[in-house]
Amino acid sequence: MTYTPTVGFISLGCPKALVDSERILTQLRTDGYTISPTYQNADLVVVNTCGFIDAAVAESLDSIGEALAENGRVIVTGCLGAREDEIRARHPQVLKVTGAHAIDEVVASVREHLPPRHDPFTSLLPPQGVKLTPSHYAYLKISEGCNHRCTFCIIPSMRGDLVSRPVDDVLVEAERLAQAGVKELLVVSQDTSAYGLDVKYQPRDWRGRSVQTRFYDLAEALGDLGIWVRMHYVYPYPHVDDVIPLMAAGKILPYLDIPFQHANPRILKLMKRPAASQNNLERIKAWRSVCPDITLRSTFIVGFPGETEQDFTELLDFLSEAQLDRVGCFAYSPVRGAAANDLPDAVPEALKQERLARFMAHQEAISAQRLQQRVGRIETVLVDEVVEEGAVARSRADAPDIDGQVFIDGATHLKVGDFVQVELEEADEHDMWGHLV
């Protein structure tokens, strides 16, 4: 039996890092490597790290240490790779350290330390490449980096400024995924609505027509694939308004993930948030007038340096007025290298946690009320899992891993990836229950 070099792989961090992992694995498989789910069967291990917040850094360093202890030969990549000195101070024996989205450099390092033995009969890949998500949905990364300099974030120092992928490349990948049976594309980047700004919205040919490298044009073209298309990490620039009619027409999912982060103008200014001067409540009202079924998801930070009780109350008032469907919240955590660390008037940790609890309780009541309004409706859902009790699915309002689920009792005959019609009959603060129609 011919020996095949084997690479173990650990992928940490956000969906954008997951896409990097998929690209590395696809190239390694193309080169003839086998991918192992265990340390023991691997000739070396690649760890794709996260370095955004302290907890993620600690997890990444621990994962590197575990890989070294279990295997001994480790290559490190990802966001934490921008801090090579810190990695080598803790783990000097790693073979190589690269930064974020360094796909070619990682593959070259694997080849250096573990030369491939290419066998065209065992190295054949599906056209969509290696995916780390279930077969019925996939993340579609459209750009790298970010032009903003939010004071709580160090992503630009790790991933650089905005670099948009050519729109025809993105659409070719999306079409391959759709042809391979993917039912839902989750569009991700650091700043999705800034797509194409760096290349001056350069037009490219796609299916015999010219498509600009622009947020609207991309959304319109993806809407022609006949599958669910969900937009994440969208900043509320004015041109986002143009995409709402596509949602109302059913071209893409009526779903926007917009990280508002706060509502108080002074705090937003301290955060250096883009579009901070926009009247977001008016924008939300206008979007709902065009597309009443739109689902709005957002994330917020409480306890940012300088946040007063009045500022926090203003944030709660914003939630009451905005009536957002899905909301995540974090207590501010200092990130090494972030400009916000130097701001005065730090909020005590106990007060941060108290505000976080109040925020979540406030929003849960809003979420529960909005879900109750959907009880009795018939909606299309996408099946994610089939268990003993029935099927676990998601509606158009639910992104995987971060939003709610729809439970269908007794529907054990369904298959993962099925679209089915469900009458919704019960809801709590996050999830819904229903029966097949």
From TrEMBL:
InterPro entries: Elp3/MiaA/NifB-like_rSAM, Methylthiotransferase, Methylthiotransferase_CS, Methylthiotransferase_N, Methylthiotransferase_N_sf, NA-bd_OB-fold, Ribosomal_uS12_MeSTrfase_RimO, rSAM. [4Fe-4S] cluster 1 binds at C14, C50, C79. Signal peptide: none annotated. It holds the Pfam family UPF0004. Residues 372-437 form the TRAM domain. [4Fe-4S] cluster 2 binds at C146, C150, C153. Its cofactor is [4Fe-4S] cluster. One of its GO terms (molecular function) is protein methylthiotransferase activity. Its main location: cytoplasm. Residues 5-115 form the MTTase N-terminal domain. It is found in: Cytoplasm. The keyword Ribonucleoprotein applies. Its EC number is 2.8.4.4. Residues 132-369 form the Radical SAM core domain. Keywords: 4Fe-4S, Cytoplasm, Iron, Iron-sulfur, Metal-binding, Ribonucleoprotein, Ribosomal protein, S-adenosyl-L-methionine, Transferase. CDD domains: Radical_SAM. Binds 2 [4Fe-4S] clusters. One cluster is coordinated with 3 cysteines and an exchangeable S-adenosyl-L-methionine. It catalyses: L-aspartate(89)-[ribosomal protein uS12]-hydrogen + (sulfur carrier)-SH + AH2 + 2 S-adenosyl-L-methionine = 3-methylsulfanyl-L-aspartate(89)-[ribosomal protein uS12]-hydrogen + (sulfur carrier)-H + 5'-deoxyadenosine + L-methionine + A + S-adenosyl-L-homocysteine + 2 H(+). GO terms for cellular component: cytosol; ribosome. The keyword Mitochondrion does not apply. One of its GO terms (biological process) is tRNA modification. Belongs to the methylthiotransferase family. RimO subfamily. NCBIfam families: 30S ribosomal protein S12 methylthiotransferase RimO (TIGR01125), MiaB/RimO family radical SAM methylthiotransferase (TIGR00089). Catalyzes the methylthiolation of an aspartic acid residue of ribosomal protein uS12. This is Ribosomal protein uS12 methylthiotransferase RimO. It comes from Methylovulum psychrotolerans.
